[in-house]
Structure formats: C-alpha cells, structure tokens
Design brief:
Blueprint: E1 3-7, E2 19-24, E3 27-28, H1 32-36, E4 39-41, E5 44-45, E6 50-52, E7 68-70, E8 82-88, E9 100-106, E10 115-119, E11 134-136, E12 145-149, E13 158-163, H2 170-183, E14 196-201, E15 203-210, E16 213-220, E17 235-240, E18 251-252, E19 258-262, E20 265-272, E21 278-284, E22 303-309, E23 312-317, E24 326-331, H3 336-349, E25 357-362, H4 367-371, H5 373-376, E26 382-385, H6 388-393, E27 402-406, E28 412-415, H7 419-422, E29 426-430
C-alpha cells in the first residue's frame, strides 16, 4: 500500500469579500516596545508639601533651574520615606507639569512592606480627590508590579510600575544613578534602586475569528493621552491571536482610517472610537494587495545561497522547485514565533512521498548550522539564506518569520501563512 499526497486548497478564507464588522477592543495588549524599551520613573524625595518640576532625562542640563510647587498630600505614614515622580502623558497641563502626571509614593524602596502610589489624575495637585492609592505588594521570589491608571477614562492610558530590578540591569542602574545625581539640581534623588521601571500599557485589542483563523487587531495610543484616534500619531496593528504586535508593521491613523494587510487579505479600518471601545473594519480578499504577494500571482524569481559545508555555499534558483508545491519559510532561530512553529514545521518535513517541498531561508545562522539542520532534527527540509534583496522581491516587511505557499507552477496560494495553517491545506490519504 503506497502513501500518496493530495494537495487541497481550502478556498473558504479567500472568497470572503468586503465583510464589514464592528470589533470591540476589550483587552490590553503588548507590542515590542512593552518588552524591549527601558523607561524609568525616577523618584525624588518629597520636600515637605512640595514637589519639583519634571526632569526630562533626554533634554535636561545641569544648569537647568529647579522649580518647586506645593501640593495637597494624602495621609501618609510617618514611618516610611515619601517620594514623588512624574509619568509622561500627552494631556495638556500647565507650564509647570509640561504634559506630565504627578505620582506621590509612600515607601518607594523595594522592602518587605507595601508601596503606596497616589496619582493626580485630574492634574489639580490635590492627591486626596483621585481615589485610593495603588499598591505594590512585596514578593520575595518575584518583582511584583501594579497597573496604574494615569487618567480617569475607562479605557484610558495605563502604565505598569515595578521596583527597578537593579540586579538584572546593573549597568543601566549605574548609568542612571550617575546621570540623575548630576542633573537633580536641588532635588534629592532617591536612587535607581528606589525608583520604578515603566511599561506603557497603551494598546487595546480585540479578536476576530475568520474561518479557522484567529486574528487580533489593536489600536495604540502612541502619544499616551488616552485617545486612540489621534490623526497622524496613533497606530493600528494586526497579528495572529496570541502573538505580540510588531511595531514595524504598524499603520499610522490618517483621517480616522487605516489600511492593513494580513494573511492574503486587505483590512480597511473605517472608524476608530476615540476611547478605543471598538473599530469598524472591512476584510476584503478580492482587492489587489499592496504589501503582500497576491493569491494567484507568480512568485518572483530569485537566487539564494544554499549551505553545502562549513562556511561554504552555492547559488540556487527558486525555479528548481517548479513542478511540485513549495512552502517557503523565512526565519530567524532567535524568534519566539519560530520556536513555536518549529515542531509543526519539522513534522511537515518528515512526510515521505508527500509531493511537496519546504525551503527555509534564514537570517543570521551559520552555514554549518543550516547544513546540518535536517539531520539534527531528522527532517527533510531544504535550507538557504535570505537577504534584503530577496525579502523585497517577496514583499516581506520585517514580519519574520513568515511563510509563502506556492503551487506546482509557483503561483501564490497564500502569503503570510504559518506552518500550523499549512496543515489545513494538506490532506493525506492511503491508497
């Protein structure tokens, strides 16, 4: 009994044209800036009932004057130190605050006791009329955190604050201490170990099921003012549900609208609620795509370097695969998405007499690693190197890893397809 492979193209996802929906955005999401950007809320000691003007690390000079302003403080314990800090928010305030929101802190250091944080959400310098404080609770095993609302809007701007992990970022802490002690003026800097790391939670998203796909679409309050539809500033992003949104693939909102492409479909964002409650969008698979290879389009010809031995390669033409369906997977082994893809990818490469091939084009790996890849993982996958030139021809815009599925004449079946989705296009039967 021989095993034969039958290639099945599922048309269900590719025949839905101009479907319009209202997508609610109930969840907070993360983008690359959330995890990779290091931002500080430097804490200074509260001087009686007064706070100093915000200190902008990027533009401050040693000669800058320090200005103090009286505030109305909540009842705070005399046992603990008291501090203040500022969080940037692009809400128009007075000249003293310069688009910042004031926070007062009881026990700012990382101790065995709670840290209390009061936020001046209405910007009146009265910290007694903004509700109860937020609390960072001590945790011996993990660095605990708290999510703080910077304004009074239900879906407004929020930040995650945590005691700065000095042991994890020692060099950064030394650099920050040196800079703050030079720039503090007549403020009294509490030290990086008594300050906070900030993570901006300015992304709202909703999910949409299209066939077997789960798509996540988000709006980002890029200027951190609690409004998600600022013209020319705020952004829209799209991803497979469960994956982090990629800033390099974002689209800036223009005149309340945006245009995205994902999984061989165009997404027209026609309306964005200013508070980020929902968006109105249309998904269309019949229009010609601008940034992704179109279904039915011939795959552009290109040559790639194939590893043959340690530090040796030879040129190969993509046309050599013509006559059988081909799955091209552009990847980097440091990518979290590749790690989650790899098991399915390898299993596809183990299908014998499948009648289709897989070509992986890598960024950054060595020739020796790629040359041994198939034997190391016991799979039959062709290996090669990608390049900026190849990416441009394949219309890949920083979204790596990414896959492109071709038929036996090298026409595009689907662009932007992950290995788990390839399985849906395949059907194995016994004869």
């Amino acid at each position: 009994m021989n095993k034969s492979f039958v290639w099945v193209v599922t048309l269900g996802l590719n025949t839905l044209a101009a479907q319009s929906i209202e997508l609610k955005m109930p969840d907070r999401g993360t983008d690359a800036e959330f995890t990779k950007t290091m931002m500080m809320a430097n804490v200074f000691e509260l001087r009686g009932d007064s706070v100093a003007n915000p200190l902008d690390f990027a533009s401050a000079k040693v000669s800058d004057a320090t200005v103090w302003k009286k505030v109305k403080s909540p009842a705070m314990s005399k046992t603990y130190r008291k501090g203040f800090t500022w969080i940037f928010s692009a809400v128009k305030t007075d000249d003293f605050a310069a688009n910042h929101t004031l926070l007062l802190i009881e026990n700012p250091g990382w101790t065995a006791y709670n840290t209390l944080i009061w936020t001046d959400r209405n910007h009146n310098y009265d910290l007694t009329d903004d509700g109860p404080p937020d609390t960072i609770k001590p945790n011996k095993k993990f660095n605990s955190n708290v999510v703080v609302s910077i304004d009074n809007k239900p879906n407004g701007y929020k930040v995650m604050l945590e005691h700065f992990p000095v042991s994890q970022f020692k060099q950064f802490a030394v650099m920050n201490d040196k800079a703050m002690y030079q720039l503090q003026g007549n403020r009294l800097f509490s030290g990086t170990e008594n300050s906070f790391r900030i993570r901006r939670m300015n992304v709202l998203y909703g999910t949409w099921s299209v066939g077997s796909e789960q798509i996540a679409i988000c709006v980002k309050d890029a200027n951190c003012n609690g409004n998600y539809a600022d013209n020319g500033l705020d952004e829209v992003m799209i991803a497979d549900d469960g994956n982090s949104f990629q800033n390099l693939q974002s689209c800036t909102i223009k005149n309340g609208k945006a245009y995205l492409e994902w999984n061989s479909a165009a997404f027209f964002i026609d309306f964005i609620h200013p508070d980020g409650q929902y968006i109105k969008l249309r998904r269309d698979t019949t229009v010609a795509l601008k940034y992704i290879l179109n279904i039915g389009q011939k795959c552009p010809r290109f040559r790639y370097d194939e590893p043959t031995a340690r530090e040796k390669t030879q040129k190969r033409r993509i046309r050599k695969f013509k006559g059988q369906p081909l799955y091209i997977y552009i990847w980097n082994d440091q990518s979290n998405e590749y790690i989650s893809d790899s098991a399915v990818l390898h299993s596809l490469g183990r299908l014998k007499n499948a009648g289709f091939k897989i070509l992986m084009l890598n960024f950054g790996a060595s020739s020796q690693y790629l040359h041994r890849y198939s034997s190391n993982y016991e799979t039959q996958i062709y290996q090669g190197f990608s390049s900026s030139k190849i990416n441009n021809r394949l219309k890949i815009r920083n979204q790596i890893p990414i896959g492109i599925l071709l038929d036996n004449r090298q026409r595009v079946i689907k662009a932007g397809i992950r290995p788990s989705q390839v399985v849906e296009y395949l059907k194995i039967r016994h004869k």
